[in-house]
Amino acid sequence: MRPIVPLNGLFMTSDLHLLEVMTKVLDKLCIKTVVCLSAKAAIQAARSQPFDCAFIDWIMNEDCFDVMSALRGNVRNEKTFVMAILEDNKNLWKAFKASVNLGMNKPQNYEQAIQFIRPTYGSMIKPRRESYRLPVKWNGTIISRLGLGKVAQITDISETGIAFKTSFPFQINDTVKVAFTIPIHGYGKVSATADVVCRSQEGTVGAVFTSIPPDQKALINHWVTGELHSMMSSHAANPILDHKLLTV
Amino acid sequence: MKNLKKKVLVIEDSKLVLKAVRMALEINGFHVVTAKNGEEGLVVAAMEKPDKIVMDWNLPKLHGKALVNQLQSGEHTCGIPIIVMSATSKAELGGDYKDVTTREHFKKDSNVLERLVQALQNQVPALV
Question: A2 CA to chain B: closest CA distance, Å?
Fold first, then answer.
């Protein structure tokens, strides 16, 4: 399971003023960054590690194309949210063609940068939010295909499924009905169908939702997002980020 | 054994920019000493007597102009050439900069490190 905070970022630039401005933004948003002072360093980093977001100072089209190609060529970076930082709009379409998600004009100061980048935070975190499993300790009921109900302890929840501990010998590909209550004010009951996708020797079962009413899915998404934001805020209040710097 | 590398003092408050300048200079054979604000820069300059000083303009504790003036009037630091780096150009710094008699100024824009290294190599050849 990947830790949720801080996010991992890639930043390529040879502009020291931009580096100064962006460092403050990255610290504020709790993005631990590999800073690359050359395209060669950025290509190496893009090929070798996963990133939630990337910021490319779009100076030389060819260099930036190579970096984007290395990034998207790494299966772990297919969904990375990439922002091109441009001097003007001349190269914006070239950047989009290279599968950049968003272009921004080069910020002159922290205020300009944070004003533009902060609203994109949801997009940066989206892939991780979709796959992240939050540890919980909830009681739930799991009903097998044969109609046998079992009380189980739900140990993890994500937007796409749950994990629970049970003594019942569920098998992979079994379809189960799950019922549990999310601890929120109001109506937090969830009742869904799920397929068992994994089972550990200790009796923990992983199941992916296959059928869930839209309002209940929205409830789970809302709860997961809220929990993540609360974790982010508490971490961002006291960030200790050691950005890595690559020159080669 | 005496260190034959030419010594450059870098005064910069941004930790990451300082790290970037330091790495660029060290890769190119310079011995780098650092300071993270104006006051510290003044002390380190007097103690280390570098061959050249590279400094940010907007520094905490002692601002660029005051620092340059004190370095140029200091007993141990008056002869040391100074390179100023700033977010804006020399012209944009305007009045604040007009009485300052540093020979070189670099805007912190794209590829500034390459230009800085080139300038240092041209004027302070590293003996390595």
Answer: 26
Task: For residue B17, give the nearest of A20, A57, A108 by CB distance.
Answer: A20
> Taking a C-beta distance cutoff of 8 angstroms, is the pair B54, B80 a contact?
no
Determine contact: B23 vs chain A, CB below 8 A.
yes
CB proximity list for A240: less than 8 A, separation 6 or greater: none
Does an H or E element contain A65, and which?
helix A61-73
ipTM: 0.83
In chain B, the N- to C-terminal Cα span, in Å, equals 14
Instruction: Give the residue with greater pLDDT, A17 vs A224.
Output: A17
Instruction: Give how far Cα A234 sits from Cα of A9, A28, A32, A238, B46, Å.
Output: 19, 12, 16, 7, 43
- Judging contacts by C-beta atoms under 8 Å, the chain B residues touching residue A245 are 16, 19-20, 23
Average pLDDT in chain A: 87
